[in-house]
Design goal:
The structure is a single chain. The chain is α+β, with helices and mostly antiparallel strands. The chain contains six helices and eight strands, in the order βαββββαββααβαα. Helices cover 20% and strands 30% of the residues. Strands 1, 2, 3, 4, 5, 6, 7 and 8 form an eight-stranded antiparallel sheet that branches. The chain is globular, with a radius of gyration of 17 Å. It starts with a strand and ends in a 28-residue tail after the last helix.
Length: 200
């Protein structure tokens, strides 16, 4: 039997912070729109801000569906699965907000993340999620898998970019400025990284 939680603390917070991957699900308001599901990982790119607020870094990539959906309606579900140890699935339903480079909150949020993450030039946004429903379930059907480590490919790929070249990269990608359904996604031209932040 699943449990509903009022806040993210204690063993629940520890479980979330111990997982190496989580999933984000969003959708546009249109019944004909594309539902999106994305895996998220990379050590140091996720943080619990307080008992009802989570955040993760949106990094360079070939699309921006999550950002587009959050800009339109804010609905998001985050999910963690135990691939090792006792079986468990945790879901957080909430309201997500993309915080872009030119937002005053940018400098307040970056210190929550690892140094090597803050130094990246491919930081596109910080996604904050205000939890409205927090629950878990058994996870009996989730397979047992052994974690080997983060893949280095994403970090290696975007380590070659400067702030200016990454902005140019974003402008060339078809589904970065707009979603598959034509919703506004990442603001382009991409605002430069603010002076004083590690990547700026």
């Amino acid at each position: 039997m699943g449990t509903i939680y009022e806040r993210i603390d204690g063993r629940l917070r520890a479980f979330i912070e111990e997982q190496h991957v989580f999933f984000t699900a969003t959708a546009p308001l249109s019944p004909d729109g594309h539902v999106n599901l994305s895996p998220k990982g990379l050590a140091g790119s996720f943080a619990v801000l307080d008992e009802t607020t989570l955040a993760y870094l949106d990094l360079g990539g070939s699309g921006a569906e999550t950002i587009a959906h959050l800009r339109e309606n804010g609905r998001v579900t985050l999910m963690w699965c135990a691939f090792g140890g006792p079986p468990r699935i945790v879901r957080v339903h909430g309201t997500g907000t993309p915080v872009f480079r030119d937002d005053p909150r940018w400098a307040e949020l970056l210190p929550y993340f690892a140094d090597e993450m803050r130094a990246r030039t491919d930081l596109r946004a910080v996604i904050t999620v205000r939890a409205e429903r927090i629950s878990d379930s058994c996870g009996f059907a989730v397979p047992l898998m052994e974690w080997q480590g983060d893949r280095p490919l994403h970090t290696q790929r975007f380590a070659r970019e400067t702030d200016a070249s990454f902005a140019a990269y974003c402008e060339k990608k078809e589904q970065v400025g707009a979603s598959l359904d034509g919703l506004p996604a990442l603001p382009l031209p991409l605002p430069p990284l603010p002076p004083g932040t590690e990547g700026g």
